Amino acid sequence: MTRLPQADLEAAAAERRAQAAAARARRVERERELAREAARWLGDDLVDGPFEFREQFEVVVSPGRAHAFLEYLRDGLGFTMFVDCTAVDYLKYEHGEHPERFAVVWTLANLDQEAYLRVKAYVDEDDPVIRSATDLWPGANWAEREVYDMYGIEFSGHPNLIRLLCPQEFSGHPLRKDYPLRGRGERDNFPVIRRGVEERY
Amino acid sequence: MGLEDFLGDGFLSTRIKDLLAWGRRNSLWPMPFGTACCAIEMMSTLSSRYDMSRFGAEVVRFSPRQSDLLIVGGRVTLKMMPVLQRIWLQMPEPKWSISMGACASCGGVFDTYTMIQGVDQFIPVDVYIPGCPPRPENLIDAVRLIQDKVSGVDIQRLIDERTGIPQLPRLEEMQARRARGAFEVPR
Fold first, then answer.
1. pTM
2. Among chain B residues, CA nearest to A164
3. Which residues contact A106 (CB under 8 A, 6 or more apart)?
4. Cβ(A152)–Cβ(A123) below 8 Å
5. B109-163 pLDDT tens trace
Protein backbone atom coordinates (compact mmCIF):
# COMPACT_ATOMS: atom_id res chain seq x y z
CA MET A 1 0.00 0.00 0.00
CA THR A 2 1.47 3.31 -1.04
CA ARG A 3 1.18 6.32 1.18
CA LEU A 4 0.36 9.73 -0.17
CA PRO A 5 2.96 12.43 0.41
CA GLN A 6 2.43 14.53 3.53
CA ALA A 7 1.67 17.64 1.49
CA ASP A 8 -1.15 15.84 -0.34
CA LEU A 9 -2.64 14.60 2.93
CA GLU A 10 -2.63 18.09 4.37
CA ALA A 11 -4.21 19.50 1.23
CA ALA A 12 -6.98 16.88 1.41
CA ALA A 13 -7.61 17.69 5.07
CA ALA A 14 -7.80 21.41 4.31
CA GLU A 15 -10.26 20.66 1.53
CA ARG A 16 -12.48 18.66 3.89
CA ARG A 17 -12.38 21.45 6.48
CA ALA A 18 -13.35 24.02 3.88
CA GLN A 19 -16.24 21.86 2.70
CA ALA A 20 -17.49 21.39 6.27
CA ALA A 21 -17.31 25.13 6.96
CA ALA A 22 -19.22 25.89 3.79
CA ALA A 23 -21.91 23.33 4.65
CA ARG A 24 -22.24 24.84 8.09
CA ALA A 25 -22.57 28.35 6.68
CA ARG A 26 -25.32 27.11 4.34
CA ARG A 27 -27.14 25.48 7.24
CA VAL A 28 -26.94 28.66 9.35
CA GLU A 29 -28.30 30.65 6.41
CA ARG A 30 -31.24 28.23 6.09
CA GLU A 31 -31.91 28.47 9.82
CA ARG A 32 -31.81 32.26 9.67
CA GLU A 33 -34.30 32.25 6.81
CA LEU A 34 -36.63 29.87 8.67
CA ALA A 35 -36.47 31.97 11.85
CA ARG A 36 -37.36 35.10 9.85
CA GLU A 37 -40.21 33.28 8.17
CA ALA A 38 -41.54 32.14 11.56
CA ALA A 39 -41.28 35.68 12.98
CA ARG A 40 -43.18 37.06 9.97
CA TRP A 41 -45.98 34.54 10.52
CA LEU A 42 -46.32 35.59 14.16
CA GLY A 43 -46.87 39.27 13.45
CA ASP A 44 -48.01 41.02 16.61
CA ASP A 45 -47.54 37.90 18.71
CA LEU A 46 -43.81 38.04 18.21
CA VAL A 47 -42.60 39.16 21.61
CA ASP A 48 -38.93 39.37 20.71
CA GLY A 49 -36.44 38.07 18.20
CA PRO A 50 -35.47 36.34 16.15
CA PHE A 51 -32.19 36.29 18.05
CA GLU A 52 -28.98 34.79 16.81
CA PHE A 53 -26.36 33.61 19.26
CA ARG A 54 -23.45 31.36 18.26
CA GLU A 55 -25.26 30.27 15.14
CA GLN A 56 -28.39 29.32 17.07
CA PHE A 57 -31.73 30.99 16.49
CA GLU A 58 -34.50 31.79 18.90
CA VAL A 59 -37.98 33.26 18.62
CA VAL A 60 -39.97 34.56 21.61
CA VAL A 61 -43.72 34.11 21.30
CA SER A 62 -46.60 35.24 23.48
CA PRO A 63 -47.81 32.35 25.67
CA GLY A 64 -51.39 32.42 24.37
CA ARG A 65 -50.26 31.90 20.79
CA ALA A 66 -47.47 29.40 21.56
CA HIS A 67 -49.44 26.26 20.71
CA ALA A 68 -50.70 27.62 17.38
CA PHE A 69 -47.18 28.73 16.57
CA LEU A 70 -45.75 25.29 17.32
CA GLU A 71 -48.42 23.74 15.13
CA TYR A 72 -47.49 26.13 12.31
CA LEU A 73 -43.80 25.30 12.73
CA ARG A 74 -44.58 21.59 12.49
CA ASP A 75 -47.01 21.70 9.56
CA GLY A 76 -45.93 24.86 7.76
CA LEU A 77 -42.17 25.06 8.16
CA GLY A 78 -41.29 21.38 8.43
CA PHE A 79 -40.07 21.32 12.07
CA THR A 80 -41.38 17.80 12.47
CA MET A 81 -39.05 16.70 15.25
CA PHE A 82 -39.54 17.68 18.85
CA VAL A 83 -36.10 17.77 20.47
CA ASP A 84 -36.76 19.07 23.96
CA CYS A 85 -38.98 21.14 26.16
CA THR A 86 -37.48 22.79 29.21
CA ALA A 87 -37.83 25.95 31.26
CA VAL A 88 -35.77 28.77 32.74
CA ASP A 89 -36.14 30.53 36.06
CA TYR A 90 -34.87 34.10 35.71
CA LEU A 91 -35.06 34.88 39.42
CA LYS A 92 -31.63 36.18 40.48
CA TYR A 93 -30.61 36.38 36.83
CA GLU A 94 -28.04 39.14 36.50
CA HIS A 95 -27.54 39.56 32.77
CA GLY A 96 -30.39 41.55 31.32
CA GLU A 97 -34.04 42.10 32.03
CA HIS A 98 -36.81 39.59 31.42
CA PRO A 99 -40.53 40.33 31.37
CA GLU A 100 -41.49 37.35 33.54
CA ARG A 101 -39.77 35.05 35.97
CA PHE A 102 -40.35 31.80 34.06
CA ALA A 103 -39.87 30.95 30.42
CA VAL A 104 -40.75 27.69 28.68
CA VAL A 105 -38.34 26.75 25.90
CA TRP A 106 -38.98 24.32 23.07
CA THR A 107 -36.24 23.11 20.76
CA LEU A 108 -37.41 21.87 17.37
CA ALA A 109 -35.61 20.31 14.45
CA ASN A 110 -36.33 20.37 10.74
CA LEU A 111 -34.83 17.13 9.49
CA ASP A 112 -35.25 17.90 5.76
CA GLN A 113 -33.31 21.16 5.95
CA GLU A 114 -31.11 20.09 8.85
CA ALA A 115 -32.16 23.14 10.85
CA TYR A 116 -32.88 23.85 14.49
CA LEU A 117 -35.06 26.53 16.08
CA ARG A 118 -35.63 27.46 19.69
CA VAL A 119 -39.01 28.85 20.73
CA LYS A 120 -39.47 30.62 24.03
CA ALA A 121 -42.60 31.80 25.82
CA TYR A 122 -42.66 33.69 29.12
CA VAL A 123 -45.27 32.53 31.61
CA ASP A 124 -46.79 34.32 34.55
CA GLU A 125 -45.14 33.62 37.90
CA ASP A 126 -48.35 33.56 39.93
CA ASP A 127 -50.28 31.39 37.49
CA PRO A 128 -47.72 29.44 35.45
CA VAL A 129 -49.91 27.63 32.94
CA ILE A 130 -49.27 27.03 29.25
CA ARG A 131 -50.89 24.77 26.71
CA SER A 132 -49.30 21.36 26.29
CA ALA A 133 -47.66 20.33 23.03
CA THR A 134 -48.39 16.65 23.64
CA ASP A 135 -51.10 16.63 20.96
CA LEU A 136 -48.53 17.82 18.41
CA TRP A 137 -45.63 15.58 19.42
CA PRO A 138 -46.25 12.62 21.75
CA GLY A 139 -42.58 12.91 22.72
CA ALA A 140 -43.36 16.10 24.61
CA ASN A 141 -45.14 14.08 27.28
CA TRP A 142 -42.24 13.27 29.59
CA ALA A 143 -40.38 16.52 28.89
CA GLU A 144 -43.39 18.49 30.06
CA ARG A 145 -43.77 16.28 33.09
CA GLU A 146 -40.16 17.03 34.00
CA VAL A 147 -40.74 20.77 33.61
CA TYR A 148 -43.81 20.47 35.81
CA ASP A 149 -41.82 18.50 38.38
CA MET A 150 -38.83 20.82 38.48
CA TYR A 151 -40.42 24.26 37.94
CA GLY A 152 -44.08 23.86 38.79
CA ILE A 153 -45.23 25.08 35.38
CA GLU A 154 -48.50 23.42 34.47
CA PHE A 155 -49.36 22.25 30.97
CA SER A 156 -53.05 22.41 30.24
CA GLY A 157 -54.31 19.54 28.12
CA HIS A 158 -51.52 17.19 29.17
CA PRO A 159 -52.88 13.63 29.47
CA ASN A 160 -50.89 12.63 32.56
CA LEU A 161 -49.32 15.61 34.30
CA ILE A 162 -47.65 13.96 37.29
CA ARG A 163 -44.10 14.27 38.58
CA LEU A 164 -41.47 12.51 36.51
CA LEU A 165 -38.40 12.33 38.75
CA CYS A 166 -39.30 13.29 42.31
CA PRO A 167 -41.60 11.07 44.41
CA GLN A 168 -45.27 11.87 43.94
CA GLU A 169 -45.70 13.03 47.53
CA PHE A 170 -42.79 15.47 47.17
CA SER A 171 -43.72 19.09 47.69
CA GLY A 172 -41.78 21.89 46.07
CA HIS A 173 -40.08 22.35 42.74
CA PRO A 174 -36.32 21.86 43.08
CA LEU A 175 -35.01 23.75 40.05
CA ARG A 176 -36.70 26.98 41.10
CA LYS A 177 -33.96 29.33 42.16
CA ASP A 178 -35.55 30.03 45.53
CA TYR A 179 -35.55 26.34 46.46
CA PRO A 180 -32.75 25.61 48.97
CA LEU A 181 -30.07 23.12 47.92
CA ARG A 182 -30.59 20.95 50.99
CA GLY A 183 -34.35 20.95 50.59
CA ARG A 184 -37.01 21.82 53.08
CA GLY A 185 -36.63 18.77 55.30
CA GLU A 186 -37.96 16.21 52.81
CA ARG A 187 -34.89 13.99 53.22
CA ASP A 188 -35.39 13.72 56.99
CA ASN A 189 -39.05 12.81 56.72
CA PHE A 190 -39.00 9.00 57.04
CA PRO A 191 -40.00 6.62 59.81
CA VAL A 192 -37.03 5.28 61.79
CA ILE A 193 -36.83 1.50 61.88
CA ARG A 194 -35.19 0.11 65.00
CA ARG A 195 -34.02 -3.33 65.95
CA GLY A 196 -36.82 -5.39 67.41
CA VAL A 197 -36.15 -8.95 68.38
CA GLU A 198 -32.55 -9.75 67.56
CA GLU A 199 -31.53 -9.75 71.22
CA ARG A 200 -33.38 -13.06 71.56
CA TYR A 201 -30.83 -14.93 69.47
CA MET B 1 -14.26 -33.45 81.37
CA GLY B 2 -17.91 -33.84 81.99
CA LEU B 3 -20.14 -35.06 79.22
CA GLU B 4 -17.34 -35.49 76.66
CA ASP B 5 -15.46 -37.80 79.03
CA PHE B 6 -18.58 -39.86 79.44
CA LEU B 7 -19.34 -40.14 75.70
CA GLY B 8 -15.77 -40.71 74.53
CA ASP B 9 -14.08 -39.60 71.30
CA GLY B 10 -16.08 -38.04 68.48
CA PHE B 11 -18.44 -36.04 70.67
CA LEU B 12 -18.41 -32.38 71.56
CA SER B 13 -20.68 -30.53 73.92
CA THR B 14 -21.78 -26.97 73.34
CA ARG B 15 -24.78 -24.75 73.80
CA ILE B 16 -27.56 -24.57 71.20
CA LYS B 17 -27.05 -20.81 71.06
CA ASP B 18 -23.38 -21.19 70.17
CA LEU B 19 -24.09 -23.93 67.65
CA LEU B 20 -26.62 -21.73 65.87
CA ALA B 21 -24.21 -18.82 65.92
CA TRP B 22 -21.46 -21.02 64.51
CA GLY B 23 -23.71 -22.03 61.65
CA ARG B 24 -24.91 -18.54 60.99
CA ARG B 25 -21.53 -16.87 61.06
CA ASN B 26 -20.11 -19.24 58.48
CA SER B 27 -23.01 -19.08 56.08
CA LEU B 28 -24.03 -15.44 55.83
CA TRP B 29 -26.23 -14.84 52.80
CA PRO B 30 -25.78 -11.23 51.73
CA MET B 31 -28.50 -9.14 50.17
CA PRO B 32 -26.69 -6.58 48.00
CA PHE B 33 -28.25 -3.13 47.91
CA GLY B 34 -25.75 -1.62 45.54
CA THR B 35 -26.72 1.67 43.96
CA ALA B 36 -23.36 3.11 42.92
CA CYS B 37 -19.65 2.42 42.55
CA CYS B 38 -19.51 0.59 45.88
CA ALA B 39 -21.50 -2.15 44.16
CA ILE B 40 -18.62 -2.62 41.72
CA GLU B 41 -16.25 -3.21 44.62
CA MET B 42 -18.85 -5.54 46.10
CA MET B 43 -18.88 -7.59 42.89
CA SER B 44 -15.11 -7.65 42.92
CA THR B 45 -15.15 -8.89 46.51
CA LEU B 46 -17.57 -11.67 45.65
CA SER B 47 -15.74 -12.90 42.57
CA SER B 48 -12.65 -15.01 42.29
CA ARG B 49 -9.84 -12.57 43.02
CA TYR B 50 -10.97 -11.63 46.54
CA ASP B 51 -13.36 -14.57 46.89
CA MET B 52 -15.85 -13.92 49.65
CA SER B 53 -16.70 -17.63 49.66
CA ARG B 54 -13.60 -18.13 51.82
CA PHE B 55 -15.74 -16.69 54.60
CA GLY B 56 -18.94 -18.49 53.63
CA ALA B 57 -20.69 -15.33 52.44
CA GLU B 58 -20.73 -15.86 48.71
CA VAL B 59 -24.37 -16.84 48.20
CA VAL B 60 -25.75 -13.50 47.11
CA ARG B 61 -29.52 -13.51 47.19
CA PHE B 62 -31.45 -10.86 45.38
CA SER B 63 -34.46 -11.79 47.46
CA PRO B 64 -34.50 -10.25 50.92
CA ARG B 65 -36.54 -13.14 52.25
CA GLN B 66 -33.62 -15.53 51.74
CA SER B 67 -30.82 -13.40 53.14
CA ASP B 68 -29.56 -12.31 56.52
CA LEU B 69 -26.92 -9.66 55.74
CA LEU B 70 -27.89 -6.40 54.08
CA ILE B 71 -24.99 -4.61 52.38
CA VAL B 72 -25.99 -1.05 51.52
CA GLY B 73 -23.44 0.27 49.07
CA GLY B 74 -23.95 3.58 47.34
CA ARG B 75 -26.14 6.63 47.35
CA VAL B 76 -29.64 6.27 48.74
CA THR B 77 -32.09 8.84 47.42
CA LEU B 78 -35.35 10.13 48.74
CA LYS B 79 -37.17 7.88 46.31
CA MET B 80 -35.09 4.81 47.19
CA MET B 81 -35.32 5.06 50.98
CA PRO B 82 -38.84 3.55 51.28
CA VAL B 83 -37.63 0.65 49.12
CA LEU B 84 -34.60 0.10 51.35
CA GLN B 85 -36.74 0.16 54.47
CA ARG B 86 -39.14 -2.32 52.92
CA ILE B 87 -36.27 -4.63 52.00
CA TRP B 88 -34.92 -4.46 55.54
CA LEU B 89 -38.33 -5.30 56.97
CA GLN B 90 -38.73 -8.21 54.55
CA MET B 91 -35.52 -9.87 55.69
CA PRO B 92 -36.14 -12.61 58.26
CA GLU B 93 -34.61 -12.39 61.72
CA PRO B 94 -31.83 -12.65 62.69
CA LYS B 95 -30.34 -10.09 60.34
CA TRP B 96 -27.39 -7.76 60.16
CA SER B 97 -26.48 -4.82 57.99
CA ILE B 98 -23.36 -3.17 56.63
CA SER B 99 -23.27 0.45 55.51
CA MET B 100 -20.62 0.41 52.84
CA GLY B 101 -18.81 3.57 51.79
CA ALA B 102 -19.14 7.26 52.44
CA CYS B 103 -22.48 7.79 50.66
CA ALA B 104 -24.39 5.11 52.52
CA SER B 105 -22.80 6.07 55.83
CA CYS B 106 -23.17 9.86 55.74
CA GLY B 107 -24.31 11.00 52.31
CA GLY B 108 -20.78 11.55 51.05
CA VAL B 109 -20.36 14.65 48.94
CA PHE B 110 -24.04 14.57 47.92
CA ASP B 111 -25.47 17.00 50.45
CA THR B 112 -28.61 17.90 48.50
CA TYR B 113 -32.34 17.80 48.96
CA THR B 114 -32.69 14.40 47.37
CA MET B 115 -29.99 12.41 49.21
CA ILE B 116 -30.35 10.58 52.50
CA GLN B 117 -27.50 11.69 54.77
CA GLY B 118 -26.66 8.23 56.07
CA VAL B 119 -28.89 5.18 56.05
CA ASP B 120 -28.32 4.74 59.79
CA GLN B 121 -30.79 7.55 60.38
CA PHE B 122 -33.60 5.27 59.27
CA ILE B 123 -32.50 1.61 59.46
CA PRO B 124 -30.21 -0.18 61.93
CA VAL B 125 -26.56 -0.51 60.87
CA ASP B 126 -24.06 -2.88 62.48
CA VAL B 127 -20.82 -2.07 60.68
CA TYR B 128 -19.79 1.01 58.73
CA ILE B 129 -17.08 0.90 56.08
CA PRO B 130 -15.25 4.13 55.31
CA GLY B 131 -13.90 4.81 51.84
CA CYS B 132 -15.03 6.10 48.50
CA PRO B 133 -15.34 3.39 47.39
CA PRO B 134 -13.82 1.02 49.99
CA ARG B 135 -11.43 -1.60 48.75
CA PRO B 136 -12.57 -5.23 48.75
CA GLU B 137 -10.34 -5.89 51.77
CA ASN B 138 -12.42 -3.39 53.74
CA LEU B 139 -15.62 -5.21 52.84
CA ILE B 140 -14.09 -8.54 53.82
CA ASP B 141 -13.02 -6.97 57.10
CA ALA B 142 -16.56 -5.75 57.66
CA VAL B 143 -18.00 -9.19 56.96
CA ARG B 144 -15.56 -10.68 59.47
CA LEU B 145 -16.65 -8.12 62.04
CA ILE B 146 -20.24 -9.15 61.35
CA GLN B 147 -19.16 -12.75 61.92
CA ASP B 148 -17.71 -11.75 65.27
CA LYS B 149 -20.93 -9.98 66.12
CA VAL B 150 -22.94 -13.06 65.18
CA SER B 151 -20.75 -15.06 67.56
CA GLY B 152 -21.58 -12.63 70.34
CA VAL B 153 -18.29 -10.70 70.51
CA ASP B 154 -18.52 -7.03 71.47
CA ILE B 155 -17.24 -5.68 68.19
CA GLN B 156 -17.18 -2.09 69.37
CA ARG B 157 -14.57 -3.08 71.98
CA LEU B 158 -12.74 -5.09 69.30
CA ILE B 159 -12.56 -2.07 67.01
CA ASP B 160 -11.44 0.20 69.83
CA GLU B 161 -8.64 -2.19 70.74
CA ARG B 162 -7.55 -2.54 67.16
CA THR B 163 -7.55 1.12 66.18
CA GLY B 164 -6.93 2.91 69.45
CA ILE B 165 -9.51 5.48 68.35
CA PRO B 166 -12.02 6.39 71.07
CA GLN B 167 -15.60 5.33 70.52
CA LEU B 168 -17.82 7.37 68.31
CA PRO B 169 -21.16 8.34 69.83
CA ARG B 170 -23.64 5.50 69.56
CA LEU B 171 -26.64 5.75 67.25
CA GLU B 172 -29.01 6.61 70.10
CA GLU B 173 -26.80 9.53 71.07
CA MET B 174 -26.64 10.74 67.45
CA GLN B 175 -30.41 10.52 67.13
CA ALA B 176 -30.89 12.40 70.39
CA ARG B 177 -28.58 15.11 69.10
CA ARG B 178 -30.56 15.23 65.89
CA ALA B 179 -33.80 15.57 67.80
CA ARG B 180 -32.29 18.51 69.68
CA GLY B 181 -31.61 20.17 66.33
CA ALA B 182 -27.83 19.82 66.33
CA PHE B 183 -27.74 18.90 62.63
CA GLU B 184 -30.19 21.53 61.43
CA VAL B 185 -28.94 23.31 58.36
CA PRO B 186 -29.83 26.93 57.62
CA ARG B 187 -32.62 27.07 55.09
1. 0.76
2. B79
3. A70, A82, A84, A85, A118, A119, A120, A133
4. no
5. 998 888 988 898 888 898 999 998 999 999 999 998 899 888 887 777 777 777 6
Domain hosting B63: range is 25-163
- Beta strands B30-34 and B69-73 are parallel
Whether residue B19 is contained in a domain is answered as no
Which residue in B82, B116, B5, B8 sits closest to A167, CA to CA? B82
Q: Answer whether B121 sits within 8 Å of A181, measured CB to CB.
A: no
Domains defined along chain A, listed by start:
27-179 (3.30.460.80)
Identify the closest residue of chain A to B80 by CA–CA distance. Answer: A167
In chain B, the number of structural domains is 1
Q: Give me the residues of A, 145-174, that contact B with CB < 8 A.
A: 166-167, 170, 174
Residues with Cβ < 8 Å from B136, sequence gap 6 or more?
B41, B44, B45, B49, B50
Q: What is the mean pLDDT of chain A?
A: 87
Read off φ and ψ for residue A194, nearest 5 degrees: -110, 165
Q: pLDDT per residue over B93-106, tens digit each?
A: 888 999 999 999 98
CA distances to A193, A194, A195, B85 from B172, rounded to whole Å, are 12, 10, 12, 19
Q: Which residues of B are less than 8 Å from A188 in CB distance?
A: 121
